[in-house]
C-alpha cells in the first residue's frame, strides 16, 4: 500500500525521525534510541515513512540502514506554495491599505 506523504508528516514522531535521518543514515536501533516508545512502534513509523517514499532502507552487511529521501517532500512544498502566494498577495494588499491610511489626512471629530 502506497501512503500519502501528508499522512507521514502529520505525526510528530515521524517528523522527528525524518529530521534525524536527514542529518545521517541510521540503523533501526539507533533511531529507536532517540524515542521513549517501543522498538516495534518505531519500526511501524519507519514502515509508514518507507511506504510513502520518505525513507529508504538499505542492507549493509547484517545491518539495515535508514536513509531520508527528502526530495519526496517536494510534493508538500509545491502544495504549500499555492497558499504562500495567496497569503503573500493578501498581506501585500493589507500593507498597501495601511500605508494609504497612514498617509490620508486625519479627519477631526466634532
UniProtKB/TrEMBL annotation:
InterPro entries, per the entry: ArsR-like_HTH, HTH_ArsR_DNA-bd_dom, WH-like_DNA-bd_sf, WH_DNA-bd_sf
Residue ranges that the Swiss-Prot or TrEMBL entry lists as coiled coil: none
Name of the protein this chain belongs to: ArsR family transcriptional regulator
Gene Ontology molecular function: DNA-binding transcription factor activity
Domain HTH arsR-type: 1-88
Source organism superkingdom: Bacteria
SUPFAM superfamilies: Winged helix' DNA-binding domain
Gene3D superfamilies in UniProt: Winged helix-like DNA-binding domain superfamily/Winged helix DNA-binding domain
NCBIfam families, A to Z: HTH_metalloreg
Signal peptide: none
